[in-house]
Amino acid sequence: MAHLSSTSEPYRPRRDRLRTRGDRSRGQALVEFVLVLPPLLLVLLGIIQFGLVFADWIQVTNATRDGARKAAVSRYNASGVSAVTTTAKNSTWSLNKSAMTVTVSPAQPWTAGQTVTVTVKYPFSINILGVVVKSGNLTSSETARIE
């Protein structure tokens, strides 16, 4: 039987030749996927951790704003500093209140027209797979005029 092909390789049905090429490209895609997956997962975990810290920062700024507003209307309250601290801590929804530091300056007594500054600090850490990448304090200050 004569060869119909002009090449020197033996005759194989076309289906067999395509199957081996497809197997090789599927193997190549798997190797590429395995090489790209770890950096992609690290970036994804970093984005998630950043989002969690950003949500904490939003809560810290909200606590500062609420505390300053409480200070502005607490001129006659004998325990105004305590009320400001409680208001700031209670305005957060997921932060550990015992880790939060609230500072009110100046101390009482307050007079109308005077400014009071409320500062809230909360610790944070960004860790990826148990490795701490960045840590510190989220800090926010707000100044309000006493009414």
Secondary structure blueprint with pairings:
Layout: H1 14-72, H2 80-90, E1 101-105, E2 115-128, E3 131-145
Antiparallel strand pairs: 1-2, 2-3
Structural write-up:
- The chain is built from two helices and three strands, in the order ααβββ.
- It has one domain.
- α1 packs antiparallel against α2.
- It is 48% helix and 23% strand.
- The chain is rod-shaped, with a radius of gyration of 32 Å.
- The chain starts with 13 loop residues before the first helix and ends with a strand.
- A three-stranded antiparallel sheet has the order 1-2-3, covered by helices on one side.
- The model has no long low-confidence stretch (mean pLDDT 87).
- It is α+β, with helices and mostly antiparallel strands and 147 residues long.
- The longest helix has 59 residues.
